[in-house]
């Protein structure tokens, strides 16, 4: 059964190569995109999406915005063993898919109805729970950051693409 599904998966991928566009828009193929990274970043240097979370303490004070997955400094050992960064890349892939879904949303569409919005909410909630601060709620922003060529860890331009409402801690 597993071999049949794997073969069917690759047959669908091969068939997808013959579509006129490079983008697969079929709703039933939507779930297969979890297997592939978002390759759009290879065609040009541009804005990169980043997830920021802000936590509201029990006393009602908002803490500073924190980037959820900051860029990790490179280490030669990462070529052989890199599980933490691999999880970060998978979560960043989710953010990029969410941004793609936002770009395809009609002008009167509501992002809260997107599956990727719910997944990003869960990702932000998990990050808020990891913080050592007792909190009652949080909110998140998707920011598009243009990297500086000489300082890639410090963005030169930031634009907020989506700001969530205050979300209650689950």
Quick structural gist:
The protein is an alpha+beta fold and 170 residues long. It has 3 helices and 5 strands, in the order H-E-E-H-H-E-E-E.
User: What's the order of the H and E elements?
Assistant: HEEHHEEE
Strand content: 15-25%
Radius of gyration: 18 Å
Structural class comes to alpha+beta
Low-confidence stretches: none
Q: Count of DSSP E strands?
A: 5
Helix content range of the residues, please? 25-40%
User: Which descriptor suits the 3D outline?
Assistant: globular
Number of helices: 3
Q: What average pLDDT do the residues reach?
A: 79
Topology (elements, then pairings):
Layout: H1 2-16, E1 48-57, E2 66-67, H2 83-104, H3 115-130, E3 135-147, E4 155-163, E5 167-168
Antiparallel strand pairs: 1-2, 1-3, 3-4, 3-5
Helix pairs in contact: 2-3
Question: Could you characterize the architecture of this molecule?
Answer:
This protein is of the alpha+beta class. The chain has two domains: 1-35, no CATH class; 37-168, no CATH class. It has three helices and five strands; from the N terminus they run αββααβββ. Strands 1, 2, 3, 4 and 5 form a five-stranded antiparallel sheet that branches. A hairpin with a 7-residue loop joins strand 3 (135-147) and strand 4.
List the main descriptive attributes of the protein structure presented here:
170 residues; alpha+beta; 2 domains; 5-stranded antiparallel sheet; 3 helices; 5 strands
